[in-house]
Write a structure and sequence with these properties.
Elements lengths: L1 E9 L7 E10 L2 E9 L9 H7 L3 H4 L5 H12 L3 E4 L2 H15 L6 E5 H8 L8 H8 L8 H19 L4 H8 L4 E4 L2 E3 L34 E5 L7 H10 L3 E2 L9 E4 L5 H9 L2 E3 L1 H10 L7
Parallel strand pairs: 1-4, 4-5, 8-9, 8-10, 10-11
Antiparallel strand pairs: 1-2, 2-3, 5-6, 6-7
Helix pairs in contact: 5-7, 6-7
């Protein structure tokens, strides 16, 4: 059983802007080594939101190799391995979009999304974000550090095998009803699984610096939200239902009349539009505080 867990951090809202990759190499049911590489992104452009998210800026990557050089070193080592990633649609899209930008052939491998594995291995957890599942497992790591995220992802996958009684990743897929994705030089097939049962997260206490509104959560009436990037605690449809149940609305595009943009990992053009129009940007946790606790949106 040979696999590798990967994690990318990006420099901007564009998927084709990797600035860091972490890899945790697995053999014979154990993590052998963990490594991390900085990547010089195209044009050396960094968005302030991304820097605040992962702490990487131009100074760290100035002397790093660009993506083609990093991929050339890693691609032979990926051969024959299952690639693991938490919210794999993001990490695989980073590879695809960056290869497209540089005119490179895609590397070839099967891959698994550990979010989907976690949802089926620990269905009663309130959240299946990487840090939430690892907290449940007692695994300490520094979130949004690519090397440590890769280690955490690998650990989660190995623990999922133990929980469901799998002997390899093929049997893990069979037991959890998760179908492997496939990336090859001329094709792409996403990792898929039946939609999990809707989860009901426990209420999140408001942050100390947030003042609760004297109105109820129904004060979201008339507010407009746009989502961009990955949500790890909810599906998009669950997030939309939550907002609409409180009287708000969800739009697919950002304008001057948008009240909030909720941005997660891999946030794209909608984040750039929010910054252009001066729209308030929330993290998923800030959004949860807003919709779950009736927080005064002007103080979030």
């Amino acid at each position: 059983m040979r696999a590798v867990a990967i994690d990318f951090e990006t420099a901007t809202e564009q998927r084709a802007s990797p600035c860091s990759i972490g890899l945790a190499w697995i053999a014979d049911g154990a993590i052998e080594t963990v490594e991390h590489h900085y990547i010089r992104p195209p044009g050396m452009r960094f968005a302030p939101f991304n820097i605040a998210f992962h702490g990487i800026g131009p100074d760290q990557v100035r002397d790093a190799d660009d993506f083609p050089a990093v991929l050339a070193r890693l691609a032979p080592r990926l051969h024959g391995r299952t690639v693991l990633a938490h919210n794999a649609s993001f990490d695989i899209s980073v590879i695809r979009n960056t290869c497209d930008l540089y005119g490179l052939a895609y590397p070839e491998f099967d891959y698994l999304c550990t979010v989907k594995l976690a949802q089926r291995s620990w269905p009663d957890l309130a959240s299946h974000k990487l840090n939430a599942v690892c907290a449940h497992l007692g695994v300490a790591f520094k979130h949004h550090d690519a090397g440590e995220d890769a280690y955490a992802c690998a650990t989660l996958a190995l623990e999922a095998m133990k929980v469901v009684g799998a002997s390899c990743f093929d049997s893990l897929c069979a037991l959890t009803d998760v179908a492997m994705g496939r990336l090859s030089a001329d094709s792409y097939r996403p990792c898929s699984a039946p939609k999990p049962k809707a989860f009901r997260p426990r209420p999140t206490p408001p942050r100390p610096d947030v003042v609760l509104s004297d109105r109820s959560a129904a004060s979201l009436a008339g507010l407009s939200f746009v989502f961009t990037g990955a949500l790890e605690r909810f599906t998009r449809s669950e997030a939309r239902s939550r907002i609409e149940s409180l009287g708000g609305e969800v739009s697919g595009s950002v304008s001057k009349t948008t009240d909030y943009v909720v941005a997660g990992p891999g946030a794209g053009a909608r984040l750039a539009a929010a910054q252009k129009h001066g729209v308030k940007v929330l993290t998923e946790d800030q959004w949860l505080a807003l919709v779950g606790q009736g927080v005064n949106p002007n103080r979030v």
